Structure formats: structure tokens, C-alpha cells
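pinned: reference chain
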Amino acid sequence: MSHGKASRREVSGLEAHAGYWLRYVSNHVSQAFARKLEASGVTVAEWVVMRQMYGREGLTPGAVAAETGLTRGAVSKLVDRLVGKELVERAGREDDRRYQNLALTAAGRRLTPELAALADRNEEECFGCLTKAERAALVALMRKMVEKHGWTRVPVE
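pinned: its C-alpha cells
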């Protein structure tokens, strides 16, 4: 086996990969938001479910799962936690008892805009160093990738 220069393959550094930088930024943005949410007692995943439900009554767990790309099992666990925190309530559907409708409680409806303000603040703190045009271009490029690859799962963790 030859170990000469001709047989050696160039190994790119981590920083040479766009994925490295996307993950680096994503981790920092997500962790900063999770820290902001800590005082509310809500996780990022729970926030995603609450935000999907905000202003909408009678969503089914299946609809939440379809809209977020989460499994029904994951949605069920998140809803259980939110029910336990008295932020979401379940109601049986009169036309078919096998199905449940979900709704934010009064406390959930009050908390969601407060958490949205935290999300907006986190966005500004993390991306405020970019111009409006740079931010728009970044979002457009990421949306293009999402559409091109057909990705449907909403990032929650």
C-alpha cells in the first residue's frame, strides 16, 4: 500500500461546508430561544404547537401533526404536556367521539403572544446584524432549499 503524495486525498475542513455554518447558526439561534422560553415553562416544541393553534379553534391532533410534520405520537405527547400545564384543552367532537378537538385555554391564548414577542426578540438579536436585504436573501435561499428537497417537517428541537 502506497502512502505517497499521489495517493493522498485532500480532506476538506469543517468550515468549508455550508452545512457546518447552517448547523452552527441554527444551534445558537435555537439555544438562545430555548433559554428565553425557560421562564415560561414552555419548550420550543410546545411553542410550535401553541403557535399553530393560536387563533384557530377545533384543530385535531392529526391536523397539528400534518401542519408541523410531527408524528401524531409526538403531537399527542406535546398536547398531553400542554394540557398538564393548562395551556391547551381537549374536547370530544360531537359528530364522532373518536376524534378530539384541541384549543388553547384562556391562559394559552394570553401566553402565546408573549412567547411570540420572545421569538421576535430572539430573531432580532440573532439576525439584526444583517441588513433587511441580506435577511431576505438568506430566507429566500433557505426556502428554495426546502422547496427543492420537499422538506416538510417543522424544526422544533
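why pinned: The helical segments are 18-38, 44-53, 61-68, 72-84, 106-127, 132-149. The two ends are 45 Å apart (CA to CA).
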